[in-house]
Please model this.
Amino acid sequence: MKIATIVGARPQFVKAAAVSRSIAAHNADGARGGPEIRESIIHTGQHYDYGMSRVFFEELDIPEPHYNLGIGSGTHGDMTGKMLSGIERLLLDLKPDWVIVYGDTNSTLAGALAASKLHIPVAHVEAGLRSFNRKMPEEINRVLTDHLSALLLCPTQTAIDNLGKEGITSGVTLVGDVMYDSVCYYREQTQPSKQDSDFALMTLHRAENTSAPERLRNILDAVGQSPVPVLLPMHPGTRKKIEDFGIVLPEAVRVLEPAPYLTLLGHLAACRFVITDSGGLQKEAYFFRKKCVTVRDETEWVELVDAGANRVVGAEVENIIEAMDWAMTPIAGEADLYGHGDAADKIIELMLKQKSPKKNTDGHS
Ligand code: UD1
Model:
């Protein structure tokens, strides 16, 4: 069975690592009586800095991408259009049985669109997430990708319910979260955090926060009043915006280069709490039993809020300060909100079961 995997941005490398590992285990096990799986990895080049891309392949032992389209940054239309044409060319050549796409980035949408127009079935990992905010590019990417996919691999029941409300019920399965698979696998190999005092871990990169100077300034002002120092491994796009807007960072904020995965896990293990606008980090905070202050107006991971592990506070200074005080204590109780660390194995099993799925001509098979 031939699979083409489309990746391009940082969180996708972490997710694809779990699935590639499961493919390797399947093949090593004499293909467990089924066909051998041949995976071709296509990197769009959306993230291109060493610290945003290459280091993840090295650390997580992901097979070298077979193709790198080298597309880099641009406007959304420009980026997605170039990816669409580059991926289509490769898929015509490779003729895979499946295309796997991950999450909600421009690379996800381009991969799903190219494949579905060629009648190659699409498997969407992390299907069904919704923020219900169409101003986010990620929301547009998710909705369209889900409607183009034959296999919708959902991390939570909420995701399944969201798809049902849009009339998508076939090909939908609850598999758990591949990011939890990765944390279970790598937890023992984390790089211990070198911080010598208590700290909060912060990341910030969403366009809704970084493209509006007032909003960005408010968030940074507020975290400057954190009860503990704030460690901020900074996305290069955010760094550029802070410079462009002439924002001076508060003293409590220590800026670092973007963190490689195992270093980030080390910070998560050692920190007091997390402040973020990232989807992935909201869950990773929970996996390490740390509370999360989410500087967005909504979250896709609503079960974290219901479990008392996450507060969605927007960009109001007072709300952020209050939530940081709340976040100083760890999460109480135990719960398995995201499966059992075997989502990737379930995904591969499902794809093998549907080895020759009906081609995706009617939207869903
Ligand atoms: C993208 C995804 C987002 C995901 C995030 C993970 C979209 C629409 N958004 O956001 O869903 O959570 O990746 O990080 O696909 N840049 C560099 N070097 C790099 C990569 C980016 O300097 O290696 C800078 C560029 O100036 C670029 C900006 O960061 O314009 C934003 O990058 P982009 O890929 O557009 O979006 P992200 O914010 O990374």
In short: The first strand starts at residue 2 and ends at 7.
